Amino acid sequence: MTLLPAAEAPLTPPPAGSAKKSRQGLGLGRYIAIRAVLILPTVLILVTLVFFLMRVVGDPISASVGDRLTPAQLEERLTAAGFNRPILVQYFEYIGQIFTGNFGRTLTDNRPITEVLLQYGSATLELVIYALIVAFLIGIPLGLVAAYRKDRTPDAILRVLAILAYATPVFFAGLLLKLVFGVWLGVLPLSGRADTRVALALGRMDDPTGIYLIDAIRLGSPTAIGDVLAHAVLPALALGLLTAGVFLRLVRTNVISTLSNDYVNAARSRGVSEFRLVTKHAYKPALIPIITVIGLQIALMLGGAVLTETTFEWRGLGFQLTQYLNARDFVAVQGIVALLAVIVAVTNFVVDVIAALIDPRVRY
Amino acid sequence: MAGTATPVSARPTIKPTLWQRLPLVSHLRQSIGLQRGMLVVGMVITAVIVLAAVFAPLIAPYGFAESRVDGVQFGRQQAPSAEHIWGTTVGGYDVFSRVIWGAQTALLVVIISVLLSIFAGVVLGLVSGYLGGWLDRILVVIADAIYPFPTLLIAIVVSIVLTGGESSLWGGVLAAAVAVTVVFIPQYFRVIRSEVVRLKAEAFVESAQVIGTSTVRIMFLHVLRNSTRTLPLIVTLNASEAILTLAGLGFLGFGIQPTAAAEWGYDLNRALSDTASGIWWTGVFPGISIVLLGLGLTLVGESINDIADPRLRTRKRPTKGVPA
Q: Strand, helix or coil at A105?
């Protein structure tokens, strides 16, 4: 999907209920309002899907701890948790709870799910930000080079590399990085977010943000900062390379099509050098389509984060999600999925708004 | 469809035969230089893996779940040697055999999932786009909600529901394929629907309506045939994504069970702990297989995309050369 920038970038417009010409002139405010209202059904649909899919397997308690309980104990716990009531009653209760911010408690370790989300969400956020930085630093300059050298050797090499980055699963990239930098060269740590001592020191801080780099800086210890950064390099590379490939391709395609615009031709005829055309004239307009795709990229990264976190034992939401999935703790799974759905929906909303601010044509 | 893309000089003389109009063949004929190179490389890589999958029983020296021969154990984590050219895994299986058998699993899942998602996505897109109304609106909202969500997570949830934990070969392959399918239906749905909505206003559809052609006939004859031009592109790109999704499922332990079939993602998961002690052969070979198959399919899809898009298509130049 990410490979289809041109064909897929425009999201299907909101339900065409009032899609008449009369909307013209209402402009940005109305556009943002419609987009904001659309967050709700998006989240609701995903939560609903996951809720019912999970319940097809059975009730969460039998699924997670059922084999360790006697039938009487099971019955008792089911009644206590309300899982033996009609499914629709449970569903509406669950939806109601979600909207009041109460996601319930995990079944396996009986923690409030909001606490789990906050604790591990920050770790995932940190990873995704690092990966985005890697993707921007690698993808955009190389994309410009590929466009500048279109159909020449650098372009060919870069395009193959970009496809390679796309075709490589993040966990294999991670495995290779671990093998080369962690084992053979022995320069970077293999897994985790920090050394045990550093992690302990960071955990003991009052009011930790959970984002290790910020915490380490607040701690003021250079060793802690270095350690945290060293642990972040390989996971960020593994996850970032995938997206860097996508950015490279997007920048290349967009710059090439911008380069055939009249104003670029005009500049070219005035004798502006091809290099300057790429870096000054075609660069910025070519970035606009990229902004609209970043929303999808972040969703892709969240999926990749699950794999990256498992590869590097980075204790974030994705790592925790697989733990809970293996334990068949469906209440926890639902909570995490609901949060991810909110993140995806809100990101897309923000991206849509930014795109509308930059490019008035988007507002239709 | 591809009519505008044929070089002008070739058009008036010969009408392309059916063979020449087949998706990949026609693309190959249109391409030149670097693009043709990429297309050919992609097709060759894919073909090699397909052959490996088809002839897996002949190529693989051992079964995928075979850990002993004549009662003698292979040994665990053996380095590559004459008996086991790519070494053995932590479970004592032959890595080479598992990689070859894994090709079979991967292709089975890809083929089933692509067929299922084309079928479901095309029918839904056609009905939704042509008939419109409340059904259309509901389907669009649902597809839009699922579309940006991480595909892997949906696949995990669906796979757990379908397998309930354990699975046989066909059960596992089917469950993985359906899990991958669910993810891709919205993509086919969106593409086909937007084509259908565009075609609905065309004159030929209107004239069919005027002479009283039945709705079903218009949908499946007149509109469907004209709305499939982007399918080859999406199919190849989705196929490579299906490989990644399947491997991701296997890597997280929600794919096919190891005794039921060989699966590259699962093998990589088991290989993860090997890397710390410098054992590379258990992970590198299945990993490279995933990359190669993904690369082959993406190269084909990518080339089709470029050839279909006139802005990106490399044109024949008067001066020969500039190939990479």
A: strand
Q: Closest Cα partner for A183 from B279, B82, B31, B78?
A: B279
Q: Do A7 and B157 touch (CB under 8 A)?
A: no
Question: Per 3-state DSSP, what percentage of chain A is helix, strand, and coil (rounded to 5)?
Answer: 80, 0, 20
| Interval B46-60: pLDDT, tens | 889 888 888 878 777
Q: Helices B95-131 and B281-308 meet at what angle, rounded to 10?
A: 30
Instruction: Decide: B258 and B266 in contact? Cβ < 8 Å.
Output: yes
Asked if A303 contacts A321 with a C-beta cutoff of 8 angstroms, the reply is no
> Is B150 in Cβ contact with A302 (below 8 Å)?
yes
Question: Can you spell out the DSSP letters for A180-214?
Answer: IIIIIS--S--SSSS-HHHHHHHHHSSS--S-HHH
Inspect the interface and report whether the beta carbons of B34 and A176 lie closer than 8 Å: no
Low-confidence ranges of chain A (pLDDT < 70): 1-26, 57-59, 63-68, 359-364
Closest-CA residue of B relative to A253 is: B312
Angle, vertex CA B237, rays to CA B232 and CA B243, nearest 5: 125
* pLDDT tens per residue, range A127-147: 888 998 998 899 888 888 888
CA angle B110, A235, B148 (to 5 degrees): 50
| Start-to-end C-alpha separation, chain A | 24
- To the nearest whole Å, the CA of B72 is away from the closest chain A CA by 31
Asked if A246 has any chain B CB less than 8 Å from its own CB, the reply is: no
Residue B88 three-state SS: strand
Where does the pLDDT of residue B16 fall: very low under 50, low under 70, confident under 90, or very high at 90 and above?
low
Strand ranges, E, within B109-155: none
Q: Is B310 exposed, middle or buried (0-12, 13-18, 19+ CB in 10 A)?
A: exposed
